[in-house]
Amino acid sequence: MKPERFERRLARRAVWGLWVTGGLPGCLAPALDGPPIPRPEYPYRPAFESPQSPKAPRAQVDGGAVTPASGAQPAGPQPGAPLQPPRPADPTRPLEVPRGLPGAETPELVVPPDKPETKTERLKVIDALFPELPPLSRDPVVDGLPGARVVTLEEMLDYARKNSPEIAQATADVEDARGRWVQVGLYPNPTMGFQGDQIADGGPFGQFGGFFNQTIVTAGKLKIARSVVYFDYLNARARLRRAEVELARRVRTEFYAVLVAAESVRVGRLLVGFTDEVYRRQVALVKGGTAAPFEASALLALTGQAELTLVQARNRHASAWRQLAATINAPEMPPTPLAGQADEALPRFHYEALRERLVATHTDLVAARNMATQAERSLVHERVRPIPDIQNQWYFQDDTFIKSFQFGAQIGVQVPLFNKNQGGIMSAKAQVARAGWEVPRVQNTLLQQLADAYERYENARQQIALYRTQILPNLVTAFRGVYQRYQVEPDKVNYNDIVTAQQNLSVQLAAYLQALRLQWQAVGDLAGVVQVIDPKELLQELNTPIPDTWPEPTSRGGGPQKK
After folding, report:
1. Cα–Cα distance for residue pair 498/481, rounded to 1 Å
2. N or C terminus of the chain with fewer C-beta within 10 Å?
3. Contact 376, 432 (CB under 8 A)
4. pTM summary value
């Protein structure tokens, strides 16, 4: 390349680099002591319309296509339109909420100044902006119904057992298995009939009579077959027990779910009243000129959040009651007061005792052990199956031609020459091997379920205790302190501190109610996996001594606690 050509290319690259890095525009800018560059003017008010401004015409919809009205510009950048440069950062310019966000169309909060000549107008505007909230009406969930009888958990369990389709089906399955057990051991019926030989052989004479045959079952096959089917009957009874325990678990869980939902309604009503009172006091401060109007707006928003929480609690109670009514097979039962407390303190159970009870009595393990024994009896039955049964036939007839009575007999057995039930024996051996592994498989699965339910129960139990003794009391103390100091020293405590303290209390109350629901769900799951109708049965001492080396888990640690 020629030197002059290389220099021209190098110069072009230098100019391009200055332009990209901003050097060239700086060189072309006017001097600092010259006249300032005029800045574009931005409107003070946001882009959305105020209530006093005329409304923009609506767009017309025709066949799915939207046609902007006359004078109205479609939202968003148009094809071919130049992109608008971003506005320069200016802290003095009012911050605008983006158009399209829910609530962004709210006009700016304008209140007349706190002066004697504008006091009447100012109070009128404040009353319009912050109206008095209506009081809560009576709630049947909290206040009860006149003359309504309180229903206990035991009554619900008894009604469910008597009316449950699952229990009825499981009971029918027991009778079905019992019938098959009876049927398989019955002896085969004999066969009787008419027999005739040489009929009309050279005349109207012949040999007429009857026959009788009976299969004689050998090697105790009927008794062995009945012992095999007997375990189906035992397992049907185990499934009935499991259905009863599962029904009790569901009824208990949903019973306390209704109680927790009612507690949520009660707490929600108190929270609504609490937020309303804080809001009223703040409005009073705004009217007195010691607080800004936007502070009352923030607290008014909190009252809306509290009302939404109360609405959700009421809906949750209605749903919980419908689920409970469906579980006891009474879907048309109207809501009624329930006996019990959602915040009832629960004890700590010994995991070793729960595990011992589960391994000893769980119906799934009982059924697995029955299947193992049944497989062994099936193997015995397959081994004796080739032993032939005795086939016999007896007949008698009268020869009408020679006037003589005849009697005959046939006795025989099926010779197990080719079919010695080799395949059946092989299959039965494989079933024995498989059934032998079913017990540890089921036990491991149940122990996993027990560990999960026990963990959730312990988490919820200790979580509830911490909420009652530490979290909620300290949040209440914190809110009281912040509000009292705000009244005494408003220049040192911001209203945001009040909002934050109130929100923290509301959020933790919701978490506390959620922990209550999870606690009772874990109680039902724990009783279900150990298979007890009443969790109080889990507190009974077992014969095997309980190890005393396990500690009480706490957030602060600590050594083992013997009990």
Report:
1. 10
2. N
3. yes
4. 0.71
